């Protein structure tokens, strides 16, 4: 097989090996062995009790619930950013047909952003789990008295 190659194929293989050799070496000798030994490589956090499941005098549980709340907020914010980027990419790609072809992405983005605002909106940058719990409680009381938020204070 080696004698069947011509000089162009041999040169292309040599250039490929020069460029790919260090990358393959780094991955096989450094990245792959370290994936097995370090626990923080793609760490998956266990779910902890939420703030409504913690006792009032348990600061450790409250702290863990707050950290999990912040992680969830970051994840959901990234999901909204991805949905927004997908919609923008669709509108750029489709051009004048964007209203019909990108409608499903727009609806998904609006629903996700509405849900994000229901949970995290008006809490500010330093909002904690207790603030979110009180917000949820006040919303439930409002909906019990007046119906869904946004329909006004009409009693029926």
Automatic annotation (TrEMBL):
Signal peptide residue numbers: none
Cell compartments where the protein resides: Mitochondrion inner membrane
InterPro entries on file: NADH_UbQ_OxRdtase_su10, NDUFB10
GO CC annotation: mitochondrial inner membrane; respiratory chain complex I
Protein keywords: Electron transport, Membrane, Mitochondrion, Mitochondrion inner membrane, Respiratory chain, Transport
Superkingdom classification of source: Eukaryota
Membrane topology reported for the UniProt record: Peripheral membrane protein
Family: Belongs to the complex I NDUFB10 subunit family.
Protein name, UniProt field: NADH dehydrogenase [ubiquinone] 1 beta subcomplex subunit 10
The species this protein was found in: Neodiprion lecontei (Redheaded pine sawfly)
């Amino acid at each position: 097989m080696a004698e069947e190659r011509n000089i162009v194929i041999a040169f292309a293989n040599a250039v490929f090996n020069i460029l790919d050799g260090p990358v393959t070496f780094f991955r096989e000798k450094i990245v792959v062995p370290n994936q097995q030994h370090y626990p923080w490589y793609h760490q998956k956090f266990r779910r902890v009790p939420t703030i409504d499941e913690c006792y009032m005098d348990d600061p450790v549980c409250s702290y863990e619930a707050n950290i999990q709340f912040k992680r969830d907020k970051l994840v959901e914010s990234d999901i909204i950013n991805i949905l927004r980027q997908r919609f923008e990419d669709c509108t750029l790609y489709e051009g004048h047909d964007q209203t019909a072809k990108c409608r499903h992405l727009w609806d998904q983005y609006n629903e996700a952003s509405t849900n994000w605002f229901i949970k995290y909106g008006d809490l500010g940058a330093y909002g904690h789990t207790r603030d979110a719990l009180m917000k949820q409680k006040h919303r439930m009381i409002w909906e019990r008295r007046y119906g869904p938020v946004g329909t006004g204070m009409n009693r029926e």
